[in-house]
Amino acid sequence: MHFLSPYILAAVISWIVAQGLKYVVASIKGKKFHSLNQLYLSGSMPSAHSASVVSLLVVIGFRDGVNSAVFGLALLFAAVVMYDAIMVRRSSGEQGTALVELIRELKRPSKTPIHVAKGHTPSEIIGGIIVGLVIGVVVYFATVS
After folding, report:
1. What's the pTM?
2. pLDDT tens per residue across span 17-39
3. How many other C-beta atoms are found inside a 10 Å radius of the C-beta of residue 108?
4. Would residue 1 count as lying in a domain?
5. How many angstroms from the chain centroid is the CA of residue 140?
């Protein structure tokens, strides 16, 4: 008897693993283990968005078949999420960074805190895809009955 849906389990575990890996990657790059903000911020390596939608896609493919309507829907959903992360969110994040720099150059303090949400590079998306594939396969075989 399963208490949790393998579909939801795969997506949640992938998200958690990818966010944890962001901390590890940021810490290794900075050679310090203090980048706890990587546990909840968007952007960086690997893409948690990609990891979660790909793991969901993998579990759906195994359980419902790649010819099922729900697999087609999940494939489209994953493609849109990853395209958005690279194209839309990445460009808006770069524009946000440019605006913050402009505000600093003008020496005009902002009355409200500015947070720039970053998108993903193609390599960050690929990292997320790999995490999602691995977690999806593990969750499927761990929950198959």
Report:
1. 0.78
2. 998 888 787 777 775 655 555 55
3. 9
4. no
5. 20
